[in-house]
Design goal:
The chain is mainly α. It contains 4 helices and 3 strands. α2 packs across α3. 16% of the residues are buried.
Length: 98
């Protein structure tokens, strides 16, 4: 059992956005590009983006239509879940060895 068994599509999308951000946390990837890359529907991506904005993980760029910023909170969520994933996987490996 690994942490991926417990993460959902929204985290996969948020983690992808984290990987796509530049050093100013700007995400220049469009929702269509995210949908294609992750092989998810455009509707799924749009719902996730709306949820992320609502919860403070993403912020719309008011000067550029369709551009978003990953907030500090969004970055922290991804980093913490990734850290937790490593720890859970290490514990899982230890339990398999015993």
């Amino acid at each position: 059992m690994v942490i991926n068994d417990f993460t959902n599509t929204n985290f996969v999308i948020l983690a992808h956005l984290y990987n796509e951000k530049n050093n100013e946390n700007v995400i220049k990837t469009t929702q269509d590009e995210v949908a294609d890359k992750l092989q998810l529907s455009r509707v799924t991506i749009n719902k996730a983006f709306s949820l992320f904005v609502q919860n403070g993980y993403l912020q719309r760029d008011l000067k550029h239509v369709g551009r978003y910023y990953l907030t500090d909170l969004g970055c922290t969520v991804v980093e913490n879940i990734r850290t937790l994933s490593v720890e859970v996987n290490m514990l899982s490996q230890k339990s398999l060895i015993k």
